[in-house]
Amino acid sequence: MGPRKNVGNPLILEIRGNSLDDGPGIRSVVFFKGCPLSCVWWQNPEGKSVVTEIAFDANECVGCDNCMKICPENALARKNPYFIDRTRCSLCFECTAVCPSEALSRVGRVMDADKIMNTVMKDKPFYDISGGGVTFSGGEPTLFTDFTAELLSGLKKLKIHTLLETCGFFDMKTFQSALLPHLDMIYFDIKLIDDEDHRRYTGVSNERILQNFKKLVEITRNSSITILPRVPLIPGITDTARNLQAIASFLSALGVRRAALMSYNPLWIAKTNKLGSDNPFAGQNNFTSWMDAAKLKSCRDPFIDAGIEL
Prior knowledge:
With 310 residues, the chain is of the alpha/beta class. It is built from 12 helices and 10 strands. Helix 6 links the parallel strand 7 and strand 8.
């Protein structure tokens, strides 16, 4: 399976302003919908598919039943698992228009480049005072090369700091020509070193991902572009001593001296229910709990021992 170079204009999940967690300074984050990986865990499961979806949040429902009355397909009922019969739903979204609490919501909207630019530029004063800028996240922004390049180019013309978060599964030649010239910073996820494990847990080989990372480290070594490798800590999958030691050794051999560990967040478990799916990890205590300080420290040790700053 090869990476998709460009699959047309993307759906946007949201544009989140005033972020302090997605790069330096105060930032706006544009979340794309769609990813070439299919991780068994997914911090933002709504970002996996490239198509529009509908979500139902039972905790927000006020029980007015307006949605059931208006649904032309009779796809909504309390007896349905997760409320929506998705075999009948035609995604007309009439129910979302009459839902007073937004318990029913559209997941993914078409936004043209001008609208995105106008939205993020409202926060330019915050970028200016904080050294912030705009971050492209997902999903996976590199799925939409032309669209993402247009946005990045526009931002750089306005001297806005740009950052791209990526899973690393992209065509390097296309990335280097279309996206890299407009980037100030790249957050590059490295999940698993063992290729068999990577295939098992993400659905694709990691060969291209690791090669892309090596190439980016090489071509940006003497440039102003910053690359930060990030490791999501997933219980029993990526947070094992064997995997973390292998990642630390991989980075150290490339001369990388800074990385980031992303502590496990269990809140994604409930998100799958909103999209109408059971979560296979819902009954496992290690997946439904936050990572404790002792475990986080043990995850940091291989990197510290390798001289990598976290």
